[in-house]
Amino acid sequence: MMLMRFEPLREFNRSTEEPRGGHKVRQVPVDAFRRGEEFKVYLDLPGVDPDSIDLTIDKDLLSVSATRSWHRADGDEIQVQERAQGQLGRQLFLGESLDRDRITAIYRDGVLMITIPVSEKSKPKRVEVVHVGSVVEGHESAPVAVSSS
Fold first, then answer.
1. What is the topology classification, in CATH, of domain 3-121?
2. Distance between CA 13 and CA 137 in Å, rounded?
3. Helix (H, G, I), strand (E, B) or coil at 8
4. Are 66 and 51 in contact (CB under 8 A)?
């Protein structure tokens, strides 16, 4: 698999929703798919401060964090509060075939769009298959070099 959710024993998701030092980290919804020679990862981050978005890669782990806050006025009486506030985050495990050096990210319309190219060395290559020892017009043919394209 090229891209996998990072969930060792499914405990990671539970731990991101528990308070840490008084702060609750909410998991960000994600869509991930391959388009041609790239993987696309879309993370929903509506209403976050674009300057708070932090994208890091440490070995095979891509981590995204951001902050969304709502400043209430004095006297506000909250009737419903379902939108996550505070720290938001997500971690994804990157497969070996992805090119970590050419990752790009764009934040537009509340969605962080990350593009991760497939590394050149991981792309499929066609290898010519040559028959050795076949008989051609009564003569055994010599081995021919194998080339790749």
1. Immunoglobulin-like (2.60.40)
2. 68
3. helix
4. no
Amino acid (one-letter) located at 128: E
Per-residue model confidence as pLDDT tens digits over 26-68: 889 999 999 999 999 999 999 999 999 999 999 889 999 999 9
pTM: 0.65
Q: How far apart are CA 72 and CA 68, in angstroms?
A: 13
Residues 6+ apart with CB under 8 A from 87: 23, 24, 25, 26, 65, 66, 67
The full set of domain ranges for the chain reads: 3-121
- What is the Cα–Cα distance from 92 to 128, expressed in whole angstroms? 37
Cβ count near 35 (within 10 Å): 8
Write the single-letter amino acid at 124: P
- What's the distance, CA 25 to chain centroid? 19
CB-based contact 53:61 (threshold 8 Å): no
